[in-house]
Design a protein that fits this description.
The protein is α+β, with helices and mostly antiparallel strands. 28% of the residues lie in helices and 35% in strands. Strands 4-5-6-9-8-7 form a six-stranded antiparallel barrel. The radius of gyration is 18 Å and the shape is elongated. The termini are far apart.
Amino acid sequence: MALEKFTLQRFHGVIVDDQDGAGAASLLKGVRATTSGKKPLIIALAKTDAALDAVFGAGSDLVIYKPLTHDRLRNGLRAVRTLMGRQQHRVSPRVKAEIAGNLTVDEAPGIPVQILDISTSGAALSLPSPIPLADSLKLSFVLPGGETTLSTAAELAWKDNWGKLGIAFVNSDPAFTSQVSSWIKTQSPAK
């Protein structure tokens, strides 16, 4: 029924839940086959243990992990807006950045990352290689012009097909939030 509706109307985005893997794969195959003109954004809702190669191989542009917490959904929707080319309206200001950082995944040694944009509530990162599934993340970095290493716990909010991911800061120390907020105020807002 969903595929029939898709052939009759034009949609800018499609959200597929991995709960029914065979049904989701069939829908994605049908969407790709019936698409004429601009391809819709395909978002997959997936369990944290989902095989991402299979999810992205099926044509997904973005994965939002389940269970859908308020923060994961909020940050995933921000990523959707970015991918759909719409102007973002954020609760906390976010600025583009080029900040080297270190992402610790569970207890493994840190992975070098590039912070692409940052706010007091989260950041978008670029990684040299995919990260494994993790129960805990920790981001450490030094703000441009600063000397102090800032660190905060984080959770994965979204992941795309191009080596980027979004994290939401969790249980951040007020000093961390204050320093990031002060630095953001000195920067031009991201457009």
